[in-house]
Amino acid sequence: MTKRIRYHFMGIVQGVGFRPFVFRTALQCGLTGFVQNTIDGVIAEVQGSDSALKEFFLYINNNAPPLSEITGQACSEINTLDESDFKILESRSRGDLDAYSPPDSATCENCLQELFDPNDRRFRYPFINCTNCGPRLTIVNELPYDRDRTAMACFPLCPTCKKEYNTPSDRRFHAEPNACPVCGPRVRLIDASGNECLFDDPVEEAIHTLKQGLIIAIKGLGGFHLAVDAGNDAAVQRLRERKCREEKPLAIMVRNLNTAREIVETGIQEERLLASPQRPIVLLTKKNTGFISEFIAPHMNRLGVMLAYTPLQHLLLENDFTALVMTSANRTDEPICTGNREAVKRLQGIADFFLVHNRDILVRCDDSIAMVASGKPRLMRRARGFVPCPIMLTQHHPSVLALGPHLKSAVCIIKDNQAFLSPHIGDMETPQARDFFHENIKLLKKITDCSPGIVACDLHPGYYSTSVANSMQDVTVVRIQHHHAHIASCMAENGIKGKVIGLAMDGTGFGADGTIWGGEFLIADEVDFIRAGHIRQFKLPGSEAAIREPWRIGAGLLRDSYGDEWQTIATRLPLALHSQDYAVVEKMLTANINSPVCSSLGRLFDGVAAIIGIRAKVNFEGQAAMELEAVADSSDVSALPFKIDDYENTLSLNYIPSIKELTTQRLKGAPPPALAASFHAMLICSFIEMTVRIRSASGLNRVVLSGGCFQNRLLLEGCIEGLMKADFNVYSHHLVPTNDGGISLGQALVAASHFPFQ
């Protein structure tokens, strides 16, 4: 008996070879009908015998193209038609948007073989791609994802490429960025003034320029990189000086896994992550091999490494370099450059040359960053390769736009049961960053075809995102406490509902009582929270200055611990370099002048790093804490002492016994690595004990870990292991960053949960 079934596939089903896959499957199963791109996904009508239809359904769901992701599907039986073949119809652009652009993907192995094959017509062509790889989101103008709606619209296909594009059995069938040297984009090398340098092979000349120790801005998928030879100390230092990036680690790019293994320690999970189609920067433990400059990640035990992910990058790394520094091409707190003229203007005085091309970048998208902890890949910056894949939620919600925090910003839109996060925006300190923020709001609205009437923002009244929310017309604004949003974000990506014990550990967040929070133990659900405990409050003498100069925090911790004797003790510690300022700090703390109180774990890390001599001043946010983790020798250490105080049913983690013991041991000559490890051990033990006490009072057994301090692998792995041994169900981040880059997801969930879904 012949039947006809109509399928509607939603998700990443455009630009990934899904239609030719359906076409070939239908032919193999002996079916007639058609497949078609629409604005709401892919429609397929298939007609044939019952057994052939069942075979088709199973094969489609079990063997979909590697870059596709079916997030939803519907089917219904319809009337049969008199037809004899199966067709691919032209795209239809009306309807409700339920499909979205796929993320950009690294060059596949088939294209790489062709790239280096002298007999292939695309030999050494820097824009080689197929349906299984290449640019996607970053070249999209609008959906459905067809060539005339991308940055490739201005490159008419030559006859040979057009034949590939129109042949269903070809690997490049409807590969929208398909091109070749005859009809596609081209590379140029230009100087610092924007003048073209005429060479037969601009890529070879760029390699020669890098070998000379010069800095080149290279146009990639989602923006420009600043590149230098990673083995050249002078070049790396010159890049740091010009970019005003004194010590913050730089990422490096290598050609393949074999090279990565020579530079860093890798395991199975790390190598899978490195070689994945997303190609994030992966944080890995350094080897002392001497292959790369010590100035790339000074004072750190880990290094950010990524594999080449575009044909141009593979050509640059083919034979000449162990690694290239590949850092975002921008100035401090500005977004990555995307346009050729924009790059020449904004990078004036930084780049010596520019390796550019004439394919426009339509969506700005930085590199993603990840690490592996407790056996799982964990995103620390979510951008290229992962955006715009949605986070699937457990239920349908009203549409919400969440504007995120002030630092490490990203925005989010919830539509039905999917949450879409923007690419990483960064810190919103400059006009350029704020323009990028609005650019991403427009991007998400376009991707989702949605303009929500509910807008979520942070509780902090001084954030730029808060002022934007307040300025919006005809919307309902919901203000979400920072640490509640952290916990809700982790709940959303793990698909859990109801009350949990939430450990939200970070640097700064505006508390519900108007003070600075950052070491919080919450009882929370997706609607509300109570503060069950926190790290004992301490003062930040100098406020913002204390964040830049951790010795101030260390001085305050010593004063809390030793009272009037603190200055005498401090003069015997590494803080003595700043003894001339002790009287000023004492006056500030005594009179409570510009010394806000906080419960921040991030600031506690800073103060401890200063006391034991790791870092008195920082050159970038989080530096002291990162170096404290890097130096920690975790072999057979005991935890520092601590107390847990109870004030009217709110627990307080009292660190003063730890500070006293730490100081005593340091004065006796104990080395910083042992002290750093003991401090980490204290945090893990105290967090577990605090959580056990909260369980005893609340009966809750689910624990959620979130906040930027859980980027610290020692802390994260120690807490997960200890809490699981104490019979807790533990949830942590892996799909979105545990830092503020994941905040907008939590904001969106909390705001949506205040309104019933209609």
What distinguishing features does this structure have?
Alpha-Beta Plaits, 758 residues, alpha/beta, DHBP synthase
Strand proportion, as a percent range, falls in: 15-25%
Report the average pLDDT across residues.
94
Q: What is the tally of beta strands?
A: 29
How many angstroms separate the termini?
Answer: 41 Å
- The level-1 CATH class of the domain at 187-357: Alpha Beta
Write down the overall geometry.
globular
Percent helix, as a range, is 25-40%
| Radius of gyration (Å) | 27 Å
> Could you say what the CATH topology of the domain at 187-357 is called?
DHBP synthase
The helix count comes to: 23
Could you say what the CATH architecture of the domain at 187-357 is?
Alpha-Beta Complex
Walkthrough of the structure:
- The protein is an alpha/beta fold and 758 residues long.
- Among the domains are: 2-88, Alpha-Beta Plaits (2-Layer Sandwich), CATH 3.30.70; 187-357, DHBP synthase (Alpha-Beta Complex), CATH 3.90.870.40.
- It is 32% helix and 23% strand.
- The chain has an eleven-stranded mixed β-sheet with strand order 7-6-14-8-9-13-10-12-11-15-16, sandwiched between helices. It has a seven-stranded mixed β-sheet with strand order 26-27-23-22-21-28-29, sandwiched between helices. A five-stranded mixed β-sheet has the order 4-1-3-2-5.
- A hairpin with a 2-residue loop joins strand 26 (643-647) and strand 27.
- It starts with a strand and ends in a 5-residue tail after the last helix.
- The mean pLDDT is 94.
